[in-house]
Amino acid sequence: MIVPNIVNLPTLHTKPASKNNEGLNLIIIVEESLGAQFVGSLGGKPLTPSIDSFKDKSWFFKNLYATGTRSARGLEAITTGFLPSPARSVLKLPKAQSNFYTIAETLEDNGYLNTFVYGGESHFDNMKGFFYGNGFHQAVDQSDYKNPQFVGNWGVSDEDLFNKAIHLLDSANKQPQFMLVFSSSNHTPFEFPDNKIELYDQEKATVNNAVKYADYALGQFLNNLDQKGYFENSIVMVVADHDARVMGDDLVPVNRFHIPGFIVGKGVENKIDESLVSQIDLAPTLLSLLGIDSPTPMIGRDLTQVDSNYKGRAIMQYANNQAYLTQESIVILQPDKKAVQYQIKDGQPDTTRSLSPDNTALAHAQFASWSYNNEKYKLAE
């Protein structure tokens, strides 16, 4: 076991995996702009029958929260387990373009071929550059699709995207695959193929209809994976990057960070998880499900190894404000102001009842900035 160097790499550690799996594929599907407000099984609109169908046949997260409001922030949390900060996502920051930890690095060390699959231009948000610099071996984007059935402003349709992902999986050799698949059809101006869904809104180009199409395409992909046996030799996770455009005068609009997510695959127990989960918890959990116990600097929780009474927490960045949410209270940090803490009532901050702030929130916020600025979020000096 690697003992953390408190001075040099203070969060580097090794935790034994909870599973004995070996050589399983890892497939992560990141759904664009898909907040809980659109997901029926999370109390939202009835737009996601495919996602809803997995509520009782997956590890289904009922209280999963995004770390931010942009795609780069979601990809940051999902692939690196890094905490959010007031700065831009590390995908765009100069000190993170190489030797910055991602799970692709750990998977590469364990013999995986790591592929990023996108339907648009992969240089957007510097995704391609960041991923190539930190453990990914190949990136597929719009230029790699031959005769796609539909192309919009953000690239090929989600069906084209998922067909490409299936083709890559089917044509792979026996080497285990890590595939990060990022959808784009659910994005303004909400373009998708005709005659695929029964429209929810009379006007076609709306967010509700785009969500419904994205769910339709996702459902086809998951069914395809299942029929081809990938649920038996893979760990598959579906998660949103963030909610649709988040605005408002709240210090942190907590309900707009609530997103869907679930995991299926070999050895994954079917359950509805009521605990508070952050996107930063997903990567440590996936590595554990894969049977990988290599060292990482991630501070998220391996949710396969928490106590039965674990309640969880979530960290959210909204503009320059940051929130640390538990089931009982929320601490909100603001620049040049004192932190505030409120009780949680009916799932929302009760701003009429303030508490003495907990320093845990400040520690998390400061670690993100410190570890990036000092280049400490990595595996070795």
Describe the structure.
This protein has 381 residues and is α/β, with parallel strands linked by helices. The chain is built from nine helices and 16 strands. The longest helix has 21 residues, at 207-227.
Using brief descriptors, characterize the structure shown.
9-stranded mixed beta sheet; 2 domains; alpha/beta; single chain
Topology:
Elements: E1 25-31, H1 49-52, E2 59-65, H2 71-80, H3 103-109, E3 113-118, H4 127-133, E4 138-140, E5 151-152, E6 155-156, H5 158-170, E7 177-182, H6 207-227, H7 230-233, E8 234-240, E9 258-259, E10 261-265, E11 271-278, H8 282-289, E12 314-318, E13 321-325, E14 329-333, E15 340-345, E16 348-355, H9 359-373
Parallel strand pairs: 1-7, 1-8, 2-11, 3-4, 3-7
Antiparallel strand pairs: 2-9, 2-10, 5-6, 8-10, 12-13, 13-14, 14-15, 15-16
Helix pairs in contact: 5-6
